[in-house]
Amino acid sequence: MYADDVQIYRHSTFENLGSAITAVNVDLSLICEWSKQYGLKVNPAKSQSIIIGSPGMISKVDWQNIPSIVYNGVAIPFSATVKDLGIQIDQDLSWSTHIKELSKKTFATMHSLRRLRAVLPIPTKVMIAHSLLLSILDYADASFLNLTEDQINKLERLQNLAIRFIFGLRKYDHVSEFRQKLKWLPIRRRRDLHVLSLLYCVLFHLKTPSYLKEKFTFLGVQSDLRSCRALTLSMPFHRTKFYEHSFTVQAIALWNALPIDIRQSKTLCIFKKAVKNHYSLH
Length: 282
Prior knowledge:
The chain is mainly alpha-helical.
């Protein structure tokens, strides 16, 4: 029996990179012993390892002499890109590989739907677009918050493909008024809505893991969480671009920019509707 995906993460400075790799190998050794004990198998030939950091840090790595990641005597090579739960992650989190993959999937889906464009009624095409096209663009979009303007525009064009499919528009027809008819947000605001929805769950759902909750604190009195909803979240100190574009910092910035009455929403459904209406008007 083969085990499901196993993932190990270690945080390290560039100077302590060797120590982090040693720690990962210790973890892998323990996993190897445990899997043998319970009759499970981990296939190192299908495993990957990656070092993620700023472009400056990645450029300093001596790939010829860096210690190897080893599982059961088999070296696991370092990769420039790895796939994790359907997301393509590259070394400096530029998301260029992932955006290319999204484009391929969207164009492939559009190609298969093209022959149906003229025969299906609009309500049916809207449902198809939601389930087969927007689902590709929406998946884990709260993860990549440091996209460049060019990448955002590429995703916007992919969303426009769905709008053209629904209304039978030509390549160079404007889609703004048709997006409004569908009550769809532009791709950037759509992502912001998903980020804020996730943050709302982190803040107010009782079953949220503590390691997520502790990243967010309200300014002011903390004795009654409900009464703190109208308050502002404390922005953590950040000086690197990596942290500036993290979910924590970006989600707090989006939250603090919302009107107080939206932050006071009593349920997730009410909150999402209020945020969507707010973004539609601004």
